[in-house]
């Protein structure tokens, strides 16, 4: 993995450590993690990774639950590889992408993948984890059935393949344009391919999936001339046009259809390397070709790998930590790796990109990004970026503002990717990302325009029960499902808008949205002590089980967890729920009680893997909950629980994540909590202190300053904090301000095996 020397941040020299050695991209590739092991660069447009099966989204006309395992295309338990595609989501609970699947083969030409139980029935191949290697920007595996070593690396916009073949007169490269993740009949709208010459192929693929109008352009180049090529027989249509005068299956240089499967034939010598460059563009195949020429001007695979790994190492060195156990170091830097996989760049090198209006736009003063899993990432990932990736995060806000400008609804994104809004999940949490950047002073965009975009987004009446919320102060369950979750999340988002308005001196907006932020009180049932679905007539829904996740007015959570979702005002929530002593008992029991299997046996997003008691860490609505102890008179109660969560929910190995990584949110929680603080309410300039796992850490900030975290008496047993010093002065409250971090300095945690019950009081 090479050696690394130094880099400069705002003129300050940073001694780079070799940190990519601690990244294990295989973590999260088993069970529920939904991560991929393939090659990519930080925030890269290309995610070149293996697919291990071809399970369709539909089965007998209904949703096939088995497909959920393949949100990232790869499952560690599988025994075969189908091929290597160029676009993937990391850790999501729904999916799309999987564009341009390439598979090298030998022997008889086969254009179908076959089945896993009989890999020789198609072009897929058996493989073993013993020959598999995954590093940042590099993946390799031996394809046993074809005797081919596959190696992958990537730049931002180009995936580079290197396949070492045996001697063969029947070597093939399959390009399957029907393949995709969460695939189903007619998902492919159209594919178009041109064989420009004997080494260059161009084209595009348009799909109707999670993103319903998504077009990706490509340019594909070989390092040696193609011997012959062709495609599978075309589907027969009533109208065939006058293209029927040609034999389009063999050596015909122009191909188009809904479902194209192409092959390119070669003769190979023993050990010969066939190399492929696949460049992507959101705009045109000409743009893809320019991206290829500039990012990968030659065929030096090792040079591309080295340069991309150096980029990774520079990014990882933004936080340099020491831990007691090596496995914690692996968990930490793998979390950093996962946190920096997205959102992804979405524009050509000439800065052109396809907009939400399907027109071509230019990102003049910002880098355009796509793939916003905002229901997840507003909580900790974007706040993390405001510390260690501030320029990127400000550009992400600019990208959201461009989305708003191009939206016919004039809304900021909800869950968007590839010039599409897919409307996944609830809330309008882009306003949290915008507000957090404004409040923390990370502004390279028009802040007043951004605030107005937030206001506009929060006032679209036809969006997901918002009309009722604005008129009644809550979403009625008999008018719009998941009503309690929506009411609670809208209320938090409104508070975030109020904080941005306060920062910008917009008093009228501040007052309006601060009042809206109190709407959480309208779904609290004082008789039961739980947030509860309310009907349009103002009464609470009679049938109610606070442990159930179905039909109770919540999404991906139950009332026990969601009742604690008032991150904008924990003190008032605690008072509402009976005060300090009652609230502490409630929090304690959340972690200690037993949640019977029947309450989550029918849900994909919540499994036993991610649960401690009734605390659901494997899903996001509870991520702030353990830090709520800081608003009681016993902040020490959070400390051992934080360390327990860090150890139980994050481990080395393919099954090391307790739930979907959700585009870095699970990882961002780990990073913050390992460092000893967490953003309970993005939009606030305060972080709640916890119990750091690291021994020491240095944050190398983009402004050239450093923020150091030191622990005294750190050990696996010393999980309690006896006192905290900030720049040598003891803190009287268990909180840290953003400016204390970003302006540089040093925080010291004194650790103990026994709680200091007066800490933070």
What secondary-structure arrangement, pairings included, does this model have?
Layout: E1 6-9, E2 12-15, E3 49-51, E4 58-59, E5 62-63, E6 80-81, E7 83-85, E8 101-106, E9 125-126, E10 133-135, E11 138-143, E12 148-154, E13 158-164, E14 168-176, E15 188-195, E16 200-207, E17 214-222, E18 228-231, E19 254-257, E20 261-268, E21 273-281, H1 285-295, H2 301-316, E22 319-322, H3 326-339, E23 344-345, E24 352-354, E25 360-362, E26 369-370, E27 372-373, H4 374-377, H5 381-388, H6 390-406, E28 415-417, E29 420-421, H7 430-439, H8 447-457, H9 466-472, H10 483-503, H11 507-516, E30 524-525, E31 530-531, H12 559-562, H13 570-576, H14 580-592, E32 611-612, E33 615-616, H15 636-649, H16 665-675, E34 677-678, E35 686-689, E36 696-700, E37 706-712, E38 720-726, E39 729-730, E40 735-737, H17 738-742, E41 745-752
Parallel strand pairs: 37-41
Antiparallel strand pairs: 1-2, 3-7, 4-5, 6-9, 8-14, 10-11, 11-12, 12-13, 13-21, 14-20, 15-16, 15-19, 16-17, 17-21, 18-20, 22-36, 23-26, 24-25, 27-28, 28-29, 30-31, 32-33, 34-35, 35-40, 36-37, 38-39, 38-41
Helix pairs in contact: 3-16, 5-6, 6-7, 7-8, 7-10, 10-11
GO molecular function, one term: hydrolase activity
Protein name: Glycoside hydrolase family 92 protein
Keywords: Calcium, Hydrolase
């Amino acid at each position: 993995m090479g050696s690394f020397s130094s880099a400069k941040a705002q003129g300050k020299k940073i001694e780079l450590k070799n940190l990519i050695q601690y990244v294990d991209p295989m973590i999260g590739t088993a069970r529920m993690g939904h991560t991929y092991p393939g090659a990519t660069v930080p925030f890269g447009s290309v995610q070149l990774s293996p697919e291990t099966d071809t399970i369709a989204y539909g089965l007998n006309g209904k949703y096939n639950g088995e497909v959920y395992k393949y949100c990232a295309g790869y499952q560690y338990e599988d025994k075969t590889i189908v091929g290597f595609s160029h676009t993937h989501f990391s850790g999501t609970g729904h999916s799309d992408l999987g564009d341009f699947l390439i598979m090298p083969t030998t022997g008889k030409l086969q254009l179908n993948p076959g089945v896993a139980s009989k890999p020789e029935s198609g072009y897929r191949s058996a493989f073993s984890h013993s020959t598999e290697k995954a590093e940042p920007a590099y993946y390799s595996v031996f394809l046993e059935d074809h005797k081919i070593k596959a190696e992958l690396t990537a730049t931002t916009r180009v995936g580079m393949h290197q396949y070492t073949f045996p001697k063969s007169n029947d070597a093939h490269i399959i390009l399957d344009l029907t393949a995709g993740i969460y695939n189903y009949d007619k998902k492919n709208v159209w594919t178009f391919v041109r064989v420009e010459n004997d080494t260059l192929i161009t084209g595009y693929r348009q799909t109707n999936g999670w993103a319903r109008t998504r077009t990706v352009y490509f340019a594909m180049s070989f390092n040696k001339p193609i011997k012959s090529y062709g495609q599978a027989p075309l589907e027969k249509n009533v109208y065939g046009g006058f293209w029927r005068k040609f034999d389009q299956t063999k050596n015909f240089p122009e191909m188009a259809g809904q479902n194209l499967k192409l092959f390119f034939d070669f003769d190979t010598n023993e050990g010969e390397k066939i190399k492929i460059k696949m460049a992507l563009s959101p705009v045109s195949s000409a743009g893809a070709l320019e991206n290829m020429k500039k990012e990968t001007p030659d065929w030096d695979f090792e040079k591309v790998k080295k340069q991309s790994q150096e980029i990774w190492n520079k990014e990882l060195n933004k936080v340099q930590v020491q831990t007691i156990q090596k496995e914690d170091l692996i968990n930490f830097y793998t979390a950093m790796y996962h946190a920096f996989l997205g959102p992804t760049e979405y524009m050509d090198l000439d800065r052109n990109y396809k907009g939400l209006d399907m027109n071509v736009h230019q990102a003049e003063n910002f880098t355009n990004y796509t793939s916003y899993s905002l229901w997840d990432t507003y909580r900790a990932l974007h706040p993390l970026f405001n510390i260690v990736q501030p320029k990127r995060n400000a550009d992400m806000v600019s990208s959201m503002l461009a989305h708003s400008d191009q939206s016919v609804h004039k809304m900021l994104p909800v869950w968007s990717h590839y010039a599409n809004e897919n409307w996944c999940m609830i809330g309008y949490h882009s306003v949290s990302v915008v507000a957090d950047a404004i409040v923390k002073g990370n502004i390279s965009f028009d802040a007043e325009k951004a605030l107005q975009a937030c206001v506009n987004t929060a006032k679209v009446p036809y969006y997901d029960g918002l009309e009722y919320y604005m008129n009644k102060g809550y979403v009625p369950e008999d008018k719009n499902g998941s009503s309690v979750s929506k009411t609670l999340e809208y209320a938090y988002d409104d508070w975030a808008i109020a904080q941005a308005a306060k920062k910008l001196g917009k008093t009228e907006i501040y007052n309006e949205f601060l009042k809206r932020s109190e709407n959480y009180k309208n779904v609290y049932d004082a008789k039961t002590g739980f947030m509860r679905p309310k009907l349009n007539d103002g009464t609470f829904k009679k049938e109610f089980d606070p442990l159930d996740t179905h039909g109770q007015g919540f999404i991906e959570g139950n009332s026990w967890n969601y009742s604690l979702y008032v991150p904008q005002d924990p003190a008032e929530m605690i008072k509402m729920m009976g005060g300090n002593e009652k609230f502490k008992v409630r929090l304690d029991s959340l972690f200690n009680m037993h949640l019977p299997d029947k309450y989550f046996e029918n849900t994909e997003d919540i499994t036993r893997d991610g649960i401690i008691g009734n605390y659901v860490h494997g899903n996001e609505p509870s991520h702030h909950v353990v830090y709520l102890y800081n608003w009681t008179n016993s902040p020490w109660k959070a400390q051992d629980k934080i360390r327990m969560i860090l150890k139980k929910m994050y481990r080395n190995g393919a099954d090391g994540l307790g739930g979907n990584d959700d585009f870095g949110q699970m990882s961002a929680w780990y990073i913050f909590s390992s460092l000893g603080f967490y953003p309970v309410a993005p939009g606030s300039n305060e972080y709640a202190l916890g119990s750091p796992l690291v021994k020491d850490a240095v944050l190398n900030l983009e402004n050239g300053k450093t923020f150091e975290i030191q622990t005294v008496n750190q050990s696996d047993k010393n999980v309690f904090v006896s006192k905290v010093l900030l720049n040598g002065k003891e803190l009287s409250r268990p909180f840290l301000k953003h400016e204390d971090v970003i302006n540089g300095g040093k925080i010291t945690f004194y650790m103990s095996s026994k709680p200091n019950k007066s800490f933070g009081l």
